[in-house]
Each structure stands twice: as C-alpha cells, then as structure tokens.
Design goal:
The protein has 161 residues and is mainly α. It contains 8 helices and no strands. The protein starts with a helix and ends with a helix.
C-alpha cells in the first residue's frame, strides 16, 4: 500500500496531465499512473521507494485528480481573489496544479485536513517546481486555510444554536 504522500504525488501528475489535455484522454492519463518504474527512472522519488503502489492506490490518485479537475473553476475563482500579484492563468503550470490539488483537498474532500494539505503542497512545490514556488504556494494556501478554518468555525457555531 502506498503512502498518502505518494498517492498525492500521483494525483498531482494526473491533474497536471488533465489540465494540459483539457480533460481529454482520461483513460490514457489513468494508465500512465501504472508505470511507476518509469517515474523512478526519470528521477521522481516517492516517500517510500520500497513500497509498491497498488492498483487501488493508483485508482484513488486518479479519483483525487479527477475531483480536483472538476473543481478547477471554484479553485481558480478563490485563488484569483486571494492572489494579488498573479492571476491563476499566469502561474507556472506545476504551481497551478499544486494549488488546485490542495484547494480541492481543503474544500471538497470528506474529513479534510487543511493544514496537512498546505504542508504537502509546499513539499510538492519543493520537489516539482521552482525555488520560489514553495513560498508562493505556502503564502497563497495560507490565505485559503484561513478561509476554510473560519468557515468551519462558523459552521460549528451555527450547529450549536
């Protein structure tokens, strides 16, 4: 069984491809996740190289990527509101994919762990993007985190009434 970090890395790879292909070729993109040996030969490291990602892990990664891709409009709207310097369409494609993935995890998955999503996104930016990307990703997702936590507090307060 793969680690959550490794499943997230596969989800990022799939989301990046979904975005680049505008959602086309989903079967090809899903099948690309099956060749994890090629990832290693190309220098992509997993959290635990000795663990094998099962077909269930790869399916789960693709489900996450598909959910994030379906949520692009909502993610981009919020990211554009919060980013004062860069419109989402002007961001590097990898940063955009990392931000969209984290946004989806923070706002749409059951039992979200938003702080963990921010930390994982920063780690992905360190591995897959530019030297400036981890700080940029962290700063923007921190703003999303504050909104998510405020909404959770508000919802909890409303439930008590």
């Amino acid at each position: 069984m793969g680690s959550p970090r490794d499943i997230r890395r596969l989800a990022l790879m799939a989301l990046y491809q979904l975005d680049a292909r505008a959602g086309d070729d989903t079967e090809l993109i899903r099948s690309s996740l099956d060749d994890t040996d090629s990832f290693l030969s190309e220098g992509l490291e997993f959290a635990d190289p000795s663990s094998k990602l099962s077909e269930r892990d790869r399916d789960h990664a693709f489900e996450i990527a598909s959910g994030a891709f379906a949520n692009i409009e909502a993610a981009d709207t919020e990211l554009n509101e919060l980013s004062t310097e860069w419109a989402v369409h002007r961001m590097p494609a990898m940063d955009r994919a990392i931000l969209r993935l984290a946004h989806y995890e923070m706002t749409k998955v059951e039992d979200p762990k938003p702080k963990a999503s921010v930390n994982e996104a920063v780690e992905l930016a360190k591995q897959f993007s530019t030297a400036d990307s981890p700080g940029f990703v962290n700063g923007l997702l921190d703003k999303v985190l504050k909104r998510v936590l405020a909404q959770a507090d508000h919802a909890a307060g409303s439930a008590e009434i």
